[in-house]
Amino acid sequence: MSDNIKQQMLTIGQQAKQAYQVLAIADTELKNKGLITAAQLIRDNQADIIAANKLDMQFGRDKGLTPALLDRLELNQQRIEAIAKGLEDVAQLPDPVNKILASWDRPNGLKISRVTVPLGVIGVIYESRPNVTADAAGLCLKSGNAVILRGGSESFNSSTALVKTMHDALNQVGLPTACIQLVPTRDRAAVGEMLTMVDYIDIIVPRGGKGLTERVQEQSKIPTIQHLDGNCHTYIHASADVEKAVSVVYNAKMRRTGICGATESLVVDKTIAPIILPKLLDKLSDVDCVAKGEQEAIDIDNRIQQVNEDDWGTEYLDKVISIKLCDSLNQAVTHVNKYSSGHTEAIIAEDKNAAVEFIRQVDSAIVMHNTSTQFADGGEFGMGAEIGISTGRLHARGPVGVDQLVTYKYAVYGDGQVRN
Amino acid sequence: MSDNIKQQMLTIGQQAKQAYQVLAIADTELKNKGLITAAQLIRDNQADIIAANKLDMQFGRDKGLTPALLDRLELNQQRIEAIAKGLEDVAQLPDPVNKILASWDRPNGLKISRVTVPLGVIGVIYESRPNVTADAAGLCLKSGNAVILRGGSESFNSSTALVKTMHDALNQVGLPTACIQLVPTRDRAAVGEMLTMVDYIDIIVPRGGKGLTERVQEQSKIPTIQHLDGNCHTYIHASADVEKAVSVVYNAKMRRTGICGATESLVVDKTIAPIILPKLLDKLSDVDCVAKGEQEAIDIDNRIQQVNEDDWGTEYLDKVISIKLCDSLNQAVTHVNKYSSGHTEAIIAEDKNAAVEFIRQVDSAIVMHNTSTQFADGGEFGMGAEIGISTGRLHARGPVGVDQLVTYKYAVYGDGQVRN
Q1: Comparing B203 with A218, which gets the higher pLDDT?
Q2: Cβ separation B369–A337 shorter than 8 A
Q3: What pTM, to 2 d.p., does this model score?
């Protein structure tokens, strides 16, 4: 059985490498035609896809999935339209491949340029939502990367139906179907196998909860795009506009509490805290959001509950916010750099110099001024769809869209030069 | 003992993180002053450094190091001058930090920019040459990264003396000495410990032979800049100028056989092989370079010896070259992509279209036209000193200089925007 999976995965890896050789040098028009055809065929095949999804929904109910998870799993006409539209949107993006990043001449006459090329074969490991199957496949196709998809076991039938449809599209336009492959088994041994296939997979992208991403990162022998937690901070500087601060913090915390860009902790300058906190607590109490702080904060507003040391490092993903009072910008920066997960932080300040200093000193992927950390998103940044948000420091930081799914090569043109 | 090393390494890691917070935002002038002062103090202290090196040389002789390795280990006045000059050269390079890579406005008024920042804490693990201690420290200082250096046990005293001198320079200019730390023990357990310090080290750069780099890559829990073998190919197209081809191939193979950019395998179009091979073999035979090929090649020139399948994947680093005949550019590309280690390849051709096609299709970090693969070097590319040449696909590919030792952050300026 396990030998069987080993062999199966090896075949998938070999096919991916071969398909990559073709896809890497496919021209923009062909890749876009593949995406647009896939979108159309997904619309045409929606009855089959929904039928496959019904099997998954039954499997999920039998497994006792929560209503929230079942909702994430479900495909209907509207969601299938969104999937198709997503592929068309990716087709509209500029091709990230074959872009000249820099070029220069050397004194000996060599002409050197740095040109973008695809990363290679990408392994995507994700949880239940079946739309990730099409999104990830679309982003990889556009960026010239072959992809090996390993979805959640709950979405197995839906993903299979989507990939089958995309294969029809690849066939129609004349691209190898192995550009997009789905691991054809629910067996978890396949994931373990994937993570060791250093000769066939160039990068692993885990997409899902903390449990999944941590396990992948720990076990993978292949470099990964890290997407860990978003313990985001908003810092209210002494110079902040009070109304703006309350409105932005409320949005940063409450717009959607379950996303990685949600603010989990507030840092407030002591001089402005007595004005800000009561106004903010009024709004947060209305929506049953719990605020936690130290005695000094509780003394300002007794709706604040006692905080523990553990709170500072916690990504609540819930209607809870921790509040730290501080004496200075430097103290705020030190607190943020100590407890942040390096995802997104913001400063609210009318003093522009304070904002510049905070952005310079805070060591996170995204640092914002006078706006909501919930904007931390590839789409909101105008980068198109994203395959994840990287909290790692290597290769890509922040939203990972098609422009981050490439590497580069050097092209060097000479005329017989030899090295001394 | 092992607990002791664990604690020692933990302290080093914590100190590096703290120093990084200061160094990351140090201005260009201060970093350059540190480099120039270090160069001067190294010149001033050369008697002490050479005395320390003499201890290493004795240790090396007692250990039975080969004359070649002893030569790599030795420091003399000329080599110390080269080390000092190297630091001054790094000071002259543009600062890679705080460069705006891109900036744009969003329809909602958010102003977004992508700005370079240092990678963080870099761990460099290298073999005997003590000059790497100063080179790596200089490149990291310039790029705002704290560095933890783990040199070969043979160069322990020399490296200690160099780092002590650089600490004096850091003290003089007011930067934390922990910007540059040397692991203060020869115990190999320290390397194992380093490779697991995910909370304190952001990236590992192994610099040395295949044994070292493979072991580091296999054991490291921290992302690494891969620097594996250079199984480089030169392809002679049917349109090649014969004299140019012979001269470039001779240089690519023989200038220095022991470097990763040396050509190890020649691919020759069958139509031109009968003209090229005898001329090339004349030159190679003069310097006792062995050529290996299949029967078809031997039939053209019987100085060619029988090749084995293993030869195609072998990095000889010696006076040996394998020769593959092929029918077409496509066949040559397929052969190269199959056996190459992804480092550097070249095509010799007067047909420019063939060159463009080869460069497009060959999936290596560096692909050259009409020049010697021995030019694969950061200095020759005009990028300044390099810490290695990456054969990995993530983050950096090809020469890794100061511009590759950075990542980026997004700075987002708003005026109270909240997300819908």
Answers
A1: B203
A2: no
A3: 0.92
